[in-house]
Amino acid sequence: MSRRAPFRLGIDLDGVVADFNAGWIRLYNAEFGASLRTADVAMWNAPVLLTHFASMSQFWRWAARAADGASIFRVLDPYPGALDALHRLAAEHSIIIVTTKPRFAVDDTFEWLEEHALPTQEVHIVDHKPVVDCDVYLEDADHNLAALHDERPDSIVCRYVRPWNRARDGLVDVSGWVDFEHVVAAA
Fold first, then answer.
1. Residue 142 domain-assigned (yes or no)
2. Domain containing 36: what range?
3. Residue 96, Cβ neighbours under 10 Å: how many?
4. Domain final residue pick, 74, 97, 112
5. Would 1 be classed as within a structural domain?
6. Are 146 and 166 in contact (CB under 8 A)?
7. Which of these, 98, 94, 85, lies nearest to 6 by C-alpha position?
8. Is residue 122 one of the residues assigned to a domain?
């Protein structure tokens, strides 16, 4: 990487800061009397494989109102350690949120960010994440990891290791927030 600190850190939300799977599973189990577990999620489109929904479109229609009229994105819990790590990183670097959301979730996402006091200078809700220039990215979705790797060759792209993504040459694997902090410190 040819840049010097402080860095622009491009941070994904769902699956990285916010526990999307625990959130939708909690709401689904409560509404439909199911007993799904987060350990059951091993693929990207798990809601179709694990629930009664026949398509992701059906899942998203439910997700838009599943939290007492709000979307599931309003009630997700942060992963343990995520907020503390972001605050530590923000002391030296710019935290840039780079996330993809359905249109119905945009307001809920901003409310969630405010409620959890994320120390961010910018929020980008985009379908194509490489349009946001950052020095280091933290992402969990395979398609976004591939695009960031291919289109941001001067950036460090960190794969937050999850069951639904795979190792890829040129990515830096991190297993948690402490690992990510070490990557940033060493850059």
1. yes
2. 20-74
3. 21
4. 74
5. no
6. no
7. 94
8. yes
DSSP-derived secondary structure letter, 174: E
Model confidence pLDDT, tens digit, residues 69-79: 999 999 999 99
Q: Which residue has the tokens 């998203």?
A: 60
Interior/surface letters 128-143, b for 16+ CB within 10 angstroms, e for the rest = ebbebebbbbbbbbee
115-157 per-position pLDDT tens digit: 999 999 899 999 999 999 999 999 999 999 999 999 999 999 9
Residues 14, 49 within the same domain? no
Distance CA 11, CA 78 (A): 13
Please give the structure tokens belonging to residue 16.
């990285």
Contact 75, 6 (CB under 8 A): no
One DSSP character per residue, 87-124 reads HHHHTTSEEEEEE---GGGHHHHHHHHHHTT---SEEE
Token output for 13? 């939300």
Q: Decide if pLDDT at 1 tops 70.
A: no
Look up residue 135 and give its two tokens: 């020095």
Residue 41, Ramachandran bin (φ over 0: left; ψ between -120 and 50: alpha; else beta):
beta
What six digits make up the tokens of 175?
């297993």
Residues 43 and 85 in one domain: no
Mean pLDDT of the chain: 95
